[in-house]
Design a protein that fits this description.
This protein is of the alpha+beta class and 533 residues long. The chain is 59% helix and 9% strand. The strands form three sheets. Strands 4-6-7-9-8 form a five-stranded mixed sheet, with helices on one face. Helix 9 runs antiparallel to helix 10 and helix 10 runs antiparallel to helix 11. The radius of gyration is 36 Å and the shape is elongated. The two termini are 37 Å apart. The structure holds adenosine-5'-diphosphate. Adenosine-5'-diphosphate binds next to helix 14 and helix 15.
């Protein structure tokens, strides 16, 4: 049985348990003609009826709405609405001190009451709990659109509070927590039933609202699931035992109370420390798995690099031979296609290797004095065939003052390469402009295309790992190019940003300090702990 199926057993069993109890109570009221045995007397017929309807509603609601169960969910909402009406009308009678004859509508209560009008009436907290519980069920899947932060759990959680207080009251013999009028109390069985139903209702939609963390399969969820029962039961049981000892006369009240608080502090502290240790262990395990994955990625990329480089050389050699020996056009076309795919594969492997270097902290900068204008011209020269093929022609360099600084040659070439290849891929074959400006202590390079552009909400995201915008084109990579570009720029203590309008084009700006002394390009590396292991 999967975890999800096990979670769904909670609403199912809560509905079955409470339905059986309430049917038993109703039968006993009917058979005894209004004089059920004492143990059941405090659960009024109306209460049992409302509890039965709520259980059926939970049973029908246990599956989220899908094709084919719409009618069942509507039926559940009708039953819950009827319960809200009955419980609401009961509360209304208390509020205005009136009797509308609702309490004995099906069976008259033969019990002795100081006030005849209270005969057969459910208690005020039972009616409040039933209203909250059923209102939560009604809006379980169909809450009004205007309620942004309010969900079913906003009603279901308060519905649990009153029965819990009543149960505590019964445990500690304090009737103020369940007895509201001389003849009116929330029966122990009613409180337990309401508690079971509210929990069942909450678990109808485990991944939502307050239950999201409790039913998650992540570290937080596991931790919370282990802690909730302890935190819930420990104070209750400990308090009960201390009170018992006080009543027996072994301790006076002050000492018993002080001992209770002291032992609660010690026990809760130990639980917190124990939970912290467990979470640390789980977190370390997770980090080790991440590290193992990074290593696998790195080894796989290294192993793939050699055969791919050799394939690339061989296809280029084949192209040369075909050209020299005037090979037929079809073969040339096929070899060309193979080369395009191998180039793409090579780029993906390069990206993966860079990613792995960044993640494992092996991304070291080797800086030298470089003239940016010269470097830009060189990179453009190398990419000339691609620019020509795209139809944009080689980029115009709008301005190029003498701008030199100390940077890592290979890495900055990679930055320029990424920006230019993106302007080719997404520039729509329109002219590309490059501007290099001296900013005093830094140099700014701007690459402008007039292509598809990037929507405003995506402009920050494209610098994240694996982020791509819109349709994935055949020419697209893994969505790592700009991430690696940003890592290189930031490792040089620089900045990268984009200005873009959809349909009008994009301008990528890179600002690099001329002389930054850092050599370590580790940015998003793993925590120190895992790098050392
Ligand atoms: P990829 O390898 O997929 O091109 P990049 O990290 O280089 O990944 O780019 C991320 C995404 O940013 C691209 O998939 C593309 O959607 C968008 N993008 C990058 N450059 C440009 C540009 N000049 N014009 C429009 N969109 C761009």
């Amino acid at each position: 049985m999967t975890f999800k199926e096990r979670v769904l057993l909670i609403p199912k069993s809560s509905a079955v348990i409470v339905f059986s109890i309430s049917v038993l109570v109703m039968i006993s009221w009917l058979i005894s003609q209004g004089s059920p045995p004492d143990i059941l007397r405090h659960i009024k017929f109306n209460t049992a009826f409302c509890l039965a309807m709520t259980s059926v509603s939970i049973w029908l609601m246990k599956d989220p709405p899908r094709k084919g169960n719409g009618k069942l969910i509507s039926l559940a909402q009708c039953l819950s609405s009827l319960t809200v009406v009955i419980a609401g009308a009961t509360f209304f009678q208390y509020l205005f001190g009136i009797d509308i004859g609702l309490d004995e509508i099906i069976i008259s209560d033969k019990g002795a009451y100081s006030q005849k009008s209270l005969a057969g009436r459910m208690s005020p907290p039972t009616s409040i709990s039933l209203i909250l519980l059923n209102f939560g069920l009604i809006i379980l899947d169909h809450k009004p659109k205007r309620w942004k932060r309010i969900g079913a759990s906003t009603f279901l959680i308060p519905a649990i509070i009153l029965p819990i207080f009543a149960i505590i009251g019964y445990m500690y013999g304090e009737d103020a927590l369940y007895q509201y009028l001389p003849d009116i109390r929330m029966a122990l069985i009613t409180s337990v039933c309401l508690l079971i139903l509210a929990i069942g209702a909450l678990f109808c939609r485990p991944g939502e609202g307050a239950l999201k963390v409790l039913t998650s399969e992540m570290i937080g969820g596991i931790g919370v699931r282990r802690l909730v029962p302890v935190v819930f039961l420990l104070p209750m049981i400990l308090g009960y035992l201390v009170l018992l000892v006080i009543h027996k006369g072994y301790l006076d009240f002050q000492l018993g109370f002080a001992l209770l608080i002291g032992s609660l502090i010690i026990l809760l502290m130990s639980i917190i420390v124990f939970a912290g240790k467990k979470l640390d262990g789980l977190d370390l395990e997770r980090l080790r798995l991440i590290q193992a994955r990074e290593e696998l990625l790195s080894i796989a990329s290294h192993e793939l690099k050699t055969p791919i480089t050799s394939m690339l050389l061989q296809t280029q050699l084949m192209q040369k031979v075909l050209k020299r020996e005037n090979g037929d056009e079809r073969t040339k076309k096929y070899v060309n296609q193979v080369e395009t795919q191998v180039v793409k594969l090579n780029r993906l492997i390069e990206d993966m290797l860079d990613l792995s270097r960044i993640r494992t902290g092996k991304f070291i900068l080797t800086k030298e004095q470089i003239d940016m204008c010269e470097m830009v011209r060189e990179v453009i020269g190398r990419l000339k065939p691609l620019f020509e093929k795209s139809g944009s022609g080689s980029p115009q360099i709008d301005s190029c003052q003498h701008t030199s600084g100390t940077w890592d040659r290979i890495r900055i070439e990679q930055v320029l390469n990424n920006l230019f290849t993106n302007s080719i891929r997404y520039g729509g074959g329109k002219p590309i402009h490059v501007k290099i400006t001296d900013q005093g202590s830094s140099v700014q390079i701007s690459v402008k295309d007039s292509g598809i552009g990037i929507p405003a909400e995506k402009q920050d995201k494209i610098f994240d790992r694996f982020e791509r915008v819109g349709m994935i084109k055949e020419s697209s990579g893994l969505g790592l190019g700009l991430y690696i570009t940003k890592q290189i720029v930031v490792a040089h203590a620089g900045k990268i940003w984009v200005e873009s309008t959809v349909g009008a084009g994009s301008t990528f700006h890179v600002e690099l300090p001329k002389n930054d002394s850092s050599t370590q390009g580790v940015l998003e590396s793993l925590p120190k702990q895992t790098r050392e292991t």
